[in-house]
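Tutorial handout. Part one gives the primary structure; part two gives the three-dimensional structure as tokens.
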Amino acid sequence: MVAPDLLPRIDSTLALLQRVAIEYRPAAFSNSLGAEDMVLTDMIARHRFGIDMFTLDTGRLHDETLALLPAIRARYGREVRVVKPDSAAVAGYVARNGVNAFYDSIELRKRCCEIRKIEPLRRALAGKKAWITGLRRGQSAARAALALEEADEVHGLRKFNPLSDWTANEVWSYLRSFDVPYNPLHDRGYPSIGCAPCTRAVAAGEDARAGRWWWEAERGAGARECGIHIAPDGRIARAKAGT
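Part two.
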């Protein structure tokens, strides 16, 4: 049973996805396989929108995350395209710095993200006119002004964040109402899930993304992002809707 107050949210999000599928073909959905992204997976797959779905397999993801790929295939009959980092770049980084060098400095962590996430994303988005994400304003203070639609200057296309104004409660209400598969790590205190060695469970009252690269916060670092949603000025894009 879908909560009545969630229905307008669903309708507006479906309308946006349909518009992107029609007006920005070919469009792609960058699927992190997190809770928000499983909402969008369900919408895109069940309504058969012509939107490519891909995920970035960094080589360091949790087994629970990867297990969602066959679950999606079984549930929806849809394949999620898996994009992996360049093996030579990964091997070179590990040879020079060590397999877990990202713990040593912010620079080495960002370089690891560049190799395992940012460069594969560029390849995945090549030839696309728009990309879709599961970002929400409520995920962190750095994302508080996130736009529904924005110009992605880095990749030269349009970027859509259909769940930008959804709350966490609305995300989970949708998942439960439609019995959508999700990562069991969410039930173990992981509201935000990235690579296994770079993610920990959060304590009650902590920011939802406090478990991402937590050791940097302990060393006094501010906002922490992998870089795939960062604008040229170093901030998460805050374009006005429709610009």
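Part three, for discussion. Confidence is low (pLDDT under 50) at residues 236-243. The first helix runs from residue 7 to 23.
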